[in-house]
Structure of DUF4398 domain-containing protein:
Amino acid sequence: MPASIAQFRAILQASALGIVLSLTACATLPPPTAELADAQRAVVRASDADADQYAADELARARERLAEAQAAMAAGREQKARSAALAAAALGDLAHARSREAVANAQVAQRRAQISRLREQLDTAED
């Protein structure tokens, strides 16, 4: 009888190990749909911020990576899709930031020119 209990225990342990291994093998990351959506939003946000004018290179690269991500997703290469989508989102955010920076710099230059003109007007009025 003790031999059969030992055999039963070994079979049970092997079965438990097999179940754990099969569940682990099935546990994969979900498809990168959220990453793709984030990348699309980042590219649109950059486009809306006039990145075509102020950060054209970054925006073009973001669009290329987004297209790569979409193609990889369609081909079932989810890891490639995920990494390309993350890169597209980062490049889109960079393009957005650079565009906003360029707009802010242009506004600062415009304000400085106005200040300069006002100072000149004050100087001529005092004379």
